[in-house]
Amino acid sequence: MRTVLAVGLVAVCALAAGAQEPTPYDSKEGKFAAKFPTQPGSVVSTAKARAAGQEVALFTSEKGTSTYSVAYSDLTADALKDAPAAKVLEKSEAGLATQIKAKVLSAKATAFKTGAREYPAREALVEKDGVQIRLLLVLAETRLYQVFVAGTKDAVASKEADAFVASFEIRN
What we know:
The chain is an alpha+beta fold. The chain has helices at about 1-10, 75-80, 85-100, 155, 160-165, and strands spanning about 25, 30-35, 45-50, 55-65, 65-75, 105-115, 115-130, 130-140, 145-150, 170. The protein contains five helices and ten strands.
């Protein structure tokens, strides 16, 4: 699972110039929707990688020096069998911080509401080499979603970052 999160973080930390208007993106296969900060008509980049026996799908958009990403991977039933969801999310967050040698600035368990459903979630803020990463982890059944905003301290706390994270929806 650490490798899965690290794969997501590699793309999150790629910084590049972006556009002005949020672009709604609906992933039928990923069963999620979010508004990425790219110009209308721009394509949100996708990447898939094999890591720790799991396939990770990653969707990334850049604006200025900030990166916005949604990643997901499907966990096996065995991986979830004897672990409460809160523990799985806590280990995922800790694994990410350990893998990239980042300092955890804050972390808390929470719930993620989408439509009439509520899923266990975890919010964290980590920092590595002056780059902060705002992270929302959501466990929906066996799918682990990772919503990232990476950039300066001000960028990850901005209204734009808030809007991106708030725009994330899980679709059934």
